[in-house]
Amino acid sequence: MNVLSIQSHVAYGHVGNAAAVFPMQRLGVEVWPVHTVQFSNHTGYGAWRGPVFEAGMIRDVVRGIGERGVLGTCNAVLSGYMGSAEIGAAILEAVAAVRAANPRALYGCDPVIGDVAEGVYVRPGIEAFLRERAVPVADILTPNQFELGLLTGLPSRTLAEAGAAIAALQARGPRVVLVTSALCADTPADSLDLLAGAEGRLFRVRTPRLAIAVNGAGDCIAALFLVHYARTGSAAAALGAAAASVYGLLKRTAEAGSREILTVAAQEEYVSPSEVFAVEAV
């Protein structure tokens, strides 16, 4: 399996491609990473260095990959933090090029916009680009609960509301929508829900809620879900596998008291999660 992963990258720590590439590789996937930014560290530290790349660089790198004659072997494209709407356009051009060579290739879009704690933290134009241009093109969309609301304009305070918002997104293009973290009215205070909608059905995995606040977990679960879905064709199976792996990763990270997720040290969680959770049809 080959995945073209176009998203941000940091030298220190694990977000963007630095959180997504190795877990996919550990699952036996050949990953072709293209970076939209090259930062020293993630922006959660409040200070960082490094450039946001121009869209032309993204196009040039993808064009070079195409010149190797391998786009027909690409099984999926994964995108995350984009840096600018212009980079988003270059990513969609890459998706079109891959699909032209392999019509069965999937596009997994992690629509990075923000979260409840920080609000919207991407540059102007990116939210609108994702809503208007990326959502209709994506096969798989992996927003958090905050992003689900921004993309749909709908509430998700209850399970029924979340299901309706997921269905609204699916009606605009994506065959599968994974909400990577959801706190609904019926979610116990000590728990966290992950929801996946596919083929008119809604699935839920409920895990213990960990006392941890780190960056990169969403990037990791988007990558793992894409790989498992591409291999099984089952949103329920992909949800269960990805949720178990990321829970194990975060639990190990919390136990270590680390500010950065233990992407490398906890790598066995990707292939053999220490805990598994029931996948419920709801």
Automatic annotation (TrEMBL):
Pfam families: Phos_pyr_kin (PF08543). One of its GO terms (cellular component) is cytosol. GO terms for biological process: pyridoxal 5'-phosphate salvage. This is pyridoxal kinase. It comes from the Bacteria. GO terms for molecular function: ATP binding; pyridoxal kinase activity. Keywords: ATP-binding, Kinase, Nucleotide-binding, Transferase. InterPro entries: PM/HMP-P_kinase-1, PyrdxlKinase, Ribokinase-like. NCBIfam families: PRK05756.1 (NF004398), pyridox_kin (TIGR00687). The keyword Transferase applies. Residues 75-258 form the Pyridoxamine kinase/Phosphomethylpyrimidine kinase domain. Its EC number is 2.7.1.35.
